[in-house]
Amino acid sequence: EQGILLGRHHRGTLELPGGTVEAGESFEAAVVRELGEETGLIARPGDVRLLGTLVDHVEGVLRVTVGALVHAWRGQPATQPDESVGGWAWHPLDQLPDGLFVCSAQILTAWRPDLPIDHTPAHFTPFTHRAPTTTTVDGPA
Fold it and tell me: What secondary structure, in 3-state letters, does the chain show?
């Protein structure tokens, strides 16, 4: 209802909350931990729905990004001390700002292909209980 939560990285890009999975940590646990560390929001692993993986190769760097939706949380997002992303704000899906971090743009269009967001292509494989399928996320033409 509130839209998409985006924060401004000190480099200037707008980003979804996220980060690195620690050794032995599930994706769901990493989502909950990173959400709390970056925004102060409190969620539980059961509040997380994993979307799938994005793989891209940019400037010699192979990136694997796991997208997730958090459908329930407590608190209000706020800039956290010692985090590189802050200034958290909700953005309606039909009014997303320019300047999205590439991985955030790719995940958003993998989740909602109708969003008019331009970005470099990536290969998206959704998490399902059926045989996985792979698609290319190109962004709008």
Answer: CCCEEEEEECCCCEECCCCCCCCCCCHHHHHHHHHHHHHCCECCHHHEEEEEEEEEEECCEEEEEEEEEECCCECCCCCCCCCCEEEEEEECHHHCCCCECHHHHHHHHHHCCCCCCCCCCEEEEECCCCCCCCEEECCCC
